[in-house]
Batch of 4 targets.
Target 1
Amino acid sequence: MAARTYHHERWSDDDDRLLRSMCETGKSLTLMIVKLKRPIASIRSRAIELGLRLPGTRIGLRRKHKPPA
């Protein structure tokens, strides 16, 4: 079985603005996939690059390190 390949263009400023506004208003990841026409991994990685937190996920949050015992 062949690996799935995606042929998407680079993220435009409009795409970034749309992603940012959907994250800020709490839209679902499913809606983002449909509106942006991009795979989940692409949306997640772009959100991380822009420092955005995806609603319903822990993506974009820093992990709290526990002090050594």
Target 2
Amino acid sequence: MADTGVGGVPGVAQAADRGPRADRHDTDRDLLRRIEAELAAYLDRRRAEAAEIDPAFAAATEALRGFVLGGGKRIRPTFAWWGWRGAGGDPDDEITPAVLRALSALELIQACALVHDDLIDASATRRGRPTVHVAFADRHADAGWAGRPARFGAAAAILLGDLALAWADDMLRDAGLPAAALRRAAEPWRSMRTELLAGQYLDVLGQASADTSTHGALRINRFKTAAYTVERPLHLGAAIADAAPALVRSYRRFGADIGVAFQLRDDLLDVFGDPAVTGKAAGDDLREGKRTLLVALALERAEERGATAARTVLTDALGDRHLDAAAVERIRDVLCELGAAQAVEQRIAALAGAALDALTTADIAEPAASRLAELAVTATRRRS
């Protein structure tokens, strides 16, 4: 029988009310504790409401709570916070608790995206634990319920992802922001949700249509990751602070470049990263058939050089669910031989440089300007 996690759901580990991870920047330690506290308090309230509906539904929401609080770097609310600070937000202002609650809602958008993405990609693990659809499928199998465990797991993941999205909207709306600030926040919030779903669809479409173009890969990165990871969180913080249009434009340029660089680092870590650090099996993107920029550049170079054998290694690997460690190692060699890995590293460096240039031309209050520059480096040089 699988180990039981939160609410009787196997594999979904219970989140302790703990402090920030040890590798987080000292400047943000207090911020991250406050974000965790806001999320925990909000999810506890919603779980109590769920219990009034049915204990089984409360157990499911407890699994969502465990997923949200059980890990993650809180990148999105952190960028949003410094976007607000850089636009003149005062941490000692009476509205600061409301701002923190509003920005913390970004983590529920992230939870929705991850739960659904794991289901779409048929990923088995997330943060070193079973993904939500796998955990609920295990629960079904252990209980001996009727029907197929995988179908139940998929249904539960869809519904919990939808619930996270609904609660994100609720958390933002009920955060206690002044009415004018809430109205300003609506534009980046609305755009972010649509862009995220557009990026998800383009990703699925790219896999189905076998699009291996660099343009297609970058388009997916722009909307699936960059927009809701950095660009729109910065825009959200700026909108709450009533920033000038020029600052919003600079934030968005910075955020788009850093967001794409963040995803490119993710692509490299998927193939070259240490699973003990990343929490995911090496080569998952290949098994899922993802047409990342790394793969697109490798195939492009193999075509230019007439490297038929290298191209075959890559095309055979895409979508191969049974890809083993030895095959992943061979693909690493091919990616390096073709210079694709180095090309992605160079693209990351170029994007980070362009993003930092956007910061230097903007009127951003300190210490936000310095902290955003540091976050840019952290986001693009990380190991997990």
Target 3
Amino acid sequence: MVERVLVPMDDSDLAEQALRYALETHPDAEIVVLHIVGEPSPMMGGAVGLALEGDIETAAKEHASEVLDRAREIGDSYGIDVETEVAWGSPAKLIVKRAADFDTVVIGSHGGSIAERIFVGNVARTVFRRSPVPVTVVR
């Protein structure tokens, strides 16, 4: 039985679909939404912007607030409280690292802009290949 589900979430529609899938498929499980900010980009904009902040943790939470508020709204629409977490760094590496604490990962097949997908790589593919727990990729 699945007791804990990790749902990495950015601001894409597919990430929201992944969260809905997790809520529908595992209604009795603890659902944790993880949003990673400051990921590397072709121009290093997000990472540099956070690195220049005086308090990186607070800045990361501010950058993540809209996505995590949306995740809580979606959970509320299912009558389920979702936990939220914020991390800063490389999305694929951090998701794989956190996955060890969960029974499964539910992730959108892709997210972000086209430029981020081309230059940063496919996070879902990396998570799928390296996760220590089963991964469901939602399209």
Target 4
Amino acid sequence: MSGEKPLVELCKGVNGLDKVVLREVRGSTAEVYLYGGQVTSWKNDLGEELLFTSSKAIFKPPKAIRGGIPICFPQFSNHGNLEQHGFARNRIWTIDPNPAPFPTATCDKAFVDLILSPSDEDTKAWPHSYEFRLRVTLGPGGDLMLTSRIRNTNTDGKAFSFTFAYHTYFSVSDISEVRIEGLETLDYLDNLQEKERFTEQGDAITFESEVDKVYVGTPNKIAILDHEKKRTFVLRKDGLPDAVVWNPWDKKAKAIVDLGDEDYKHMLCVEAAAVEKSLTLKPGEEWKGRLELSAVPSTYYSGQLDPQRVLEC
């Protein structure tokens, strides 16, 4: 049909940064900036934004974009010579001219393949050769899927280790009215208490103060229930054993330059991650980590999630 917008379109975003817009035929969309290889928008077929992006987000290198789905690699958190959460989220990725085969159904036509390669600057701080391929797909029902493949291409015979997270910021109506199901009774490391290990109590996780926890050995499905919006996010993951839950609350939000003072009320980070234990790749070895996000009516709850539903298409 003439005048129809393409399913995949490369265009300019904020401050002239390149972005790829993915469109699904029923009307859902996603936007992926080449800066950071970062999804910054995911809208359903009603045009409702499902991801949170800060009202003060800085779309200008070298500052990472606050919101959407930043990619944390080759480290999560802050230690050693590397910048916080690694360098992948503030580097320019390229559209992959020779994408490797991905297990994505042929009906998923709205996708983009990106690649990140080492720069001279990065190898000074992290002296390894790697190939990072990312596919972002908008599925036929509006589901958002991210598949990362990281390969060790060192020629010196050396293995390397890394940690990883999809630092997903979900848009919620009111953080006080949201709960998470699927992490109850699990152990977590509390970053607000020097990574001390605790066991989660209660039937579901709710929020009334700052939270910064790494849940370990998590199931591959987690549900985020937003009562006010009558919406449930279903997070499915593969190759990512941990889940990070973060909200800065009021005091810390005011201390974060690129976050609005009241933004914490409308965001919740639930991150599919591999952070408790480092992942190690020998030369030639490849790791794959996959995330699938769905937004469904809130009549769903974690016990209703289909246990037979698999991540691989």
